[in-house]
Amino acid sequence: MGETRGDKIFGIVNAVMLILILAIVLYPLIFVISASVSNQLAVSSGRMWLFPKEFTLVGYQKVFQNREILVGYGNTILYAVVGTSINLVMTILAAYPLSRRSFAGKNVIMFIMVFTMFFSGGMIPTYLIIKNIGMLNTMWSLVIPNAVAVWNIIIMRTFFKESVPVEVQEAAMIDGCSHTGILLRVMLPLSMPILAVMTLFYCVDHWNSYFSALIYLTDRAKFPLQLILREILIQNQMDKMAGAATSLSEQIMYGQAVKYAVVVVANLPVFLLYPFLQRYFVQGMTIGAIKG
Amino acid sequence: MSLKWLRANWELYLLILPVIAYFIIFHYVPMYGVQIAFKDFIASKGILGSPWVGFKHFERFYHSYYFWRLIKNTLGIGLFQLIVGFPVPILLALMINEVRVKRFKKFVQTVTYAPHFLSTVVMVGILVIFLTPETGIVNQIVQAFGGQSISFMTEPSWFKPLYVLSGVWQQMGWSSIIYLAALSGVDPQLHEAARVDGATRLQRIWHINLKCILPTIVILLILNTGSILSVGFEKVFLMQNDMNLESSDVFATYVYRSGLLGAQYSFSAAVGLFSNVVNFIIIVAVNYVARRVGSTSLW
């Protein structure tokens, strides 16, 4: 196709600007990874600015020797698995009836759900309810109050409606299949891509959340990883972490190493899965965006 | 709805029942419980048994030193975020959409989406590490150019720019997905025709691409404006400290401090209710304007 010279220049300028954006996004990430395996003296003096200098794994060593981090990691995995399972079941239970054209009361139920996206009782009344039910300081306070996300119900419903032909559902019905049967044997097997997206979205949410834990949990043994991270990264509580370090400067050095290492360790699972799931989540976002 | 239909489809209601129960218990009961904002909550008497006091807590809040500070900060952060953070993903999507080399396009997308998956704690943690006085990488650069080391995290004037810009860094890619999806729906024939008429690429982006994604932009603008008062509490809270409180204190953090830490349940519920109502009014108003001016609106 005949591009004019102006169009070609435009293409080049565009590419250069995108490369600049890439650098801005990538640099902090690369820096953290490099710093986590470098000698902290090199990092804090500015000698390490891109690639690792004076390779060492002392930060990771300290991270894996720390009981609180390990317990937090375990808690987070538990909360994420239980929470995501509840999320998926609830999302499916809501999405299937709402996807049926003839479901009487569909609009009312939809309104009840969507309204909560725009208005809520607020933090205090919600806290008092959780407290009254007796969920304070239990795992359930982290996984039940956010059992389902309205936005994801909408995405799922749209997928059910658009992607599984009504004829297939009706044929199953004529064959004597119940709604539960259709859902389990027809809808779900045909919805694997969207289920993958939902799993990722919900799982990441649980993995990254700290606020529910901050207000509902008091028992340190139940803290998820993000709360421990908050103490290490933001509140700078690392006295125990540095452990057997002899001098103050050594303690500070170890502390720095732990910070970088813990950031890498905390994000590892998500970033390992990320390239494989990317295809799916873009699909999921777009279903919700265009047809929601 | 006929009886026959109901007999054949009662299962649907059974399936959705747990979800409805969830919404009632965890969303509508708290909305009902917000009445404590008009009461003096006494734990032993419960939400229903506590005595009514009318607008006492609202008046106290209105006359308190915090009222204008919270309005100023919440609106300031929200507007700053809207003005800087809203256009960037649109621009990014338009730029990515112009890339002809498939692999480069894919790479840019993969990289710019990635920071979205960092947790808020890690995001703020990285800010803290990078901005550490003296030894943090940013201050090393500042000092290398002969500047004074800046204590970014405790300096009130730096709070809002840091909050907004780190948000742009983390979310611009992810937010661009929606626009990219809308752009993929642009009819190529429009571009063909425009090219025949001698339109440059920039002109075609402006007149075709931007126009085609305008409904998407409007919808997201409404949604973004609606959440202007509910600025990302989780991140504000983490970036907040005693030194920068005067520019970082927002409604939600104040509710948390006075309510959950200070146990003034009724008063904080009133503050929370106030910000929720204002929020709701804003979104209804913006939606109304959007429906009047253009043809796109949420409802």
How would you characterize this protein structure?
Chain A is mainly alpha-helical. Chain A is built from 15 helices and no strands. Chain A is globular, with a radius of gyration of 25 Å. With about 300 residues, chain B is mainly alpha-helical. Chain B folds into 2 domains: about 1-55, no CATH class; about 65-295, MetI-like fold (Orthogonal Bundle). Helix content of chain B is about 75%, strand content about 0%. Classes of the chains: A mainly alpha (about 290), B mainly alpha (about 300). At the A-B interface, helix 1, helix 4, helix 5, helix 6 and helix 10 of A face helix 1, helix 5, helix 6, helix 7 and helix 8 of B.
Strand tally of chain A is 0
Could you list the spans of chain A in which at least 5 consecutive residues all have pLDDT below 50?
none
Largest interface: A-B, 87 and 89 residues
Largest sheet of chain A: none
Give a short account of the largest sheet of chain B. Answer: none
**Helix fraction of chain B by DSSP (H/I, runs of at least 4):** over 70%
Structural class of chain B: mainly alpha
Label the overall shape of chain A. globular
* Rg of chain B, nearest Å: 25 Å
- Total of helices of chain B: 16
The CATH class name of the domain at 70-223 and 276-291 in chain A reads: Mainly Alpha
Please identify which CATH superfamily of the largest domain in chain B we are dealing with: MetI-like
